[in-house]
């Protein structure tokens, strides 16, 4: 018997239902195929970008490494800088969890990490970091003129953050006052023993000085470290033309100290490496070479050699020296010296490196010195800390020779 028409219509699927089912089936098949192709493309694309990154990172590539400075990321590989990279679309945490590892998101993240490891900078900036940015402290002083008594008054008040010049990690500063171009008549403050933030509060009078001559002078202040047994070490200087100062009343200034100008010119540079071995309790000092040394002899040359002193606190413990290089302002030494230094004594240790000019008929001349310790100048301290941070690895650095 045949079913009623209504029941037959319920059992037999309609044409519209079959058509919709077919469309859904085809759509799912196309989606699966596209997903497979998408994953294949992403893997290919990822390999292509990975290869390009490896090409940029190789030392042979002319650009990139020479114009950028690498920033070491902390342990774990996560970049500290969380600023978005230009052109990168921010991702939600849920999106990041559900995406496959080979996705474009991972590729962008890897590119972001590479970009964060590179920051703008030049080799010239690094080369001048130890000298042009060196902090020599600052000085406070006042200056004014008394028209009735024709007297210029200069008051030296105080200084702050002076660099340490002594083995003990401090200085004995005092100030010389000149009215340039006259260098013969100078005044001096008292010496403040073992003080990197000295207060002088001393007043100096230049009496009988007509105003029309005062405005033609330059007030020159030189801060020095007093040394009882040898030449005083210059710390820094400040100069201010008096024609640019309102002398009708006392004017107070804070001025950053600048490196003292050496009329005889640069003393040259020395390249040396330090290697600390904590298990052996030793430091190896390698005197590599020097360049542009100051000529100390009449013939316009020098006979340089290098002395290396190991100091513990204020005591000289051990001395080593290189051979003498005859008539050479750019000598190559390549001599290594080992010093026994227990780890607990590192903070009280100073290595003094002195470049000397050998003279057969008279006393040997000092070309320049370098003080290496925890409390030296910024360039020296950087070298010392790099040595500690990289044990058993020679760490080389150029140093400017100082008086």
Automatic annotation (TrEMBL):
Compositionally biased spans, kind Basic and acidic residues: 90-100
InterPro entries: C2_dom, C2_domain_sf, C2A_Synaptotagmin-7, C2B_Synaptotagmin-7, Synaptotagmin
UniProt membrane topology term: Single-pass membrane protein
Residue numbers spanned by region Disordered: 74-106
Transmembrane segments: 17-40
Lineage top rank: taxon: Eukaryota
GO cellular component terms given for this protein: axon; lysosomal membrane; peroxisomal membrane; phagocytic vesicle membrane; presynaptic membrane; synaptic vesicle membrane
Record key words, sorted: Calcium, Calmodulin-binding, Cell membrane, Cell projection, Cytoplasmic vesicle, Exocytosis, Lipoprotein, Lysosome, Membrane, Metal-binding, Palmitate, Peroxisome, Phosphoprotein, Repeat, Synapse, Transmembrane, Transmembrane helix
GO terms, molecular function: calcium ion binding; calcium-dependent phospholipid binding; calmodulin binding; clathrin binding; phosphatidylserine binding; SNARE binding
One Pfam family here: C2
Gene Ontology BP, a term: plasma membrane repair
Compartments in which it is found: Cytoplasmic vesicle, Phagosome membrane; Cytoplasmic vesicle, Secretory vesicle, Synaptic vesicle membrane; Lysosome membrane; Peroxisome membrane
Domain C2 intervals: 135-255, 266-399
SUBUNIT field: Homodimer. Can also form heterodimers with SYT6, SYT9 and SYT10. Interacts with calmodulin (CALM1, CALM2 or CALM3). Interacts with CD63; required for localization to lysosomes. Interacts with APP.
Family: Belongs to the synaptotagmin family.
Name of the protein in its database record: Synaptotagmin-7
Organismal lineage: Eukaryota, Metazoa, Chordata, Craniata, Vertebrata
